[in-house]
Amino acid sequence: MRSPQSATSKADEVANTADDGYRFVRGLAALLAFQIAGELMTVVFDLPVPGPLLGMVFLFSGLVLYGRGRAVDPGGSVEFASLGLLKIFPLLFVPAGVGVMLHGALLAREWLVLIAVLVVSTLFSMAVTALVAERAFASTEDTGR
Predict the structure, then answer these.
(1) In 3-state terms, what secondary structure has residue 88?
(2) pLDDT > 80? residue 143
(3) b/e per residue, 13-35, with b = 16+ CB within 10 A?
């Protein structure tokens, strides 16, 4: 026979799981809404930018402009959904791995070009990151934050 306390704790656990599921779905819906907004802007204005990237810029702008996301993400559902998606992030690399296996002959034939592109793009991103960080730290020192 179960004690009333164990039944209550089980009910609380089920309620917390339902709340977590609701937060995840609400956060995922918000993320998809920003992606769709980006897609719409890209299509309507014929922009040469991927819609999901523009949606991510909209989300970032909203989070920055409205004070750490209280207006954009009042219950922390976007953060909750994002953390949940990060847990399964490695699964997103499976299609890329399959592509590598499928196109092994092409990779073997074009390996030198691929290595050159990887090295140049890595150096470029490191340089851009260093410049952005330098300016960000300089502006932080100027404002005294």
Answers:
(1) coil
(2) no
(3) eeeeeeeeeebbebbbebbeebb
Structure tokens at 102: 């499928």
Mean pLDDT of 112-123: 96
pTM (whole model) above 0.70: no
CA pair distance 103, 98, nearest whole angstrom = 9
> Helix or strand or coil: residue 14?
helix
Q: What is the pLDDT of residues 130-140, one digit of tens each?
A: 999 998 888 76
Distances (CA, A) of 67 to 83, 100, 104: 20, 43, 48
What the block records as the tokens of 37 is: 């907004």
DSSP 94-135: HHHHHHHHHTHHHHHHSHHHHHHHHHHHHHHHHHHHHHHHHH
